[in-house]
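USER: Fancy drafting a protein?

ASSISTANT:
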Amino acid sequence: MNTGIISSRYARALLKYTNETGNGELVCSQVLAIERAIRESEDLRRILDDPVAVPNKEKISLFQAVLGNITMADELVRFFKLILRHERIEYIKLILHSFVNMYLKSRKILMAKLVTTVTSHDLEEKLENLVKEKTGYEIILETKVDPGIIGGFIFTVDDYMVDASIYHQLEVIRHQFVEKNRRIV
């Protein structure tokens, strides 16, 4: 079965369940924390992928440990039990990511990422206003400073990316130069 179909079905089920209980905001914030931990921790990914390393019952405890002193929402505990019972833990990262996207879109919110060489609140505000004007959606903007792009910015929202960095522009010019002269520079 297609992993996209599996992840979207489970994510849609969790979204429907949280809408029924009215606890969507709490579940979404906890899912974001767990998703971030899975993305950042290679050890956690390895443990989740290995069915022998940690028994399924203890995997829920791993998710709880990620949240620290915050008690995991009942909806999330029940959902993880369902995932483990149906042996879908290998899809957990995709399921959680799909849930966050579905939940935020149902609330007319988009996730966006802005990479600049220096912090620019003016640029952040302009991009937020532009997205709201064009789509009607609010955005949650994650910012990152990366001097490696030399100047300009890289803005990603939903599945769209605008790479207006000087590094990218220099790479385009270099490729054009190489292609035109048919030699490696």
Notes: The chain has a mean pLDDT of 90. The helical segments are 3-21, 24-40, 42-49, 56-67, 74-85, 92-106, 121-135, 166-181. Residues 109-181 form one domain.
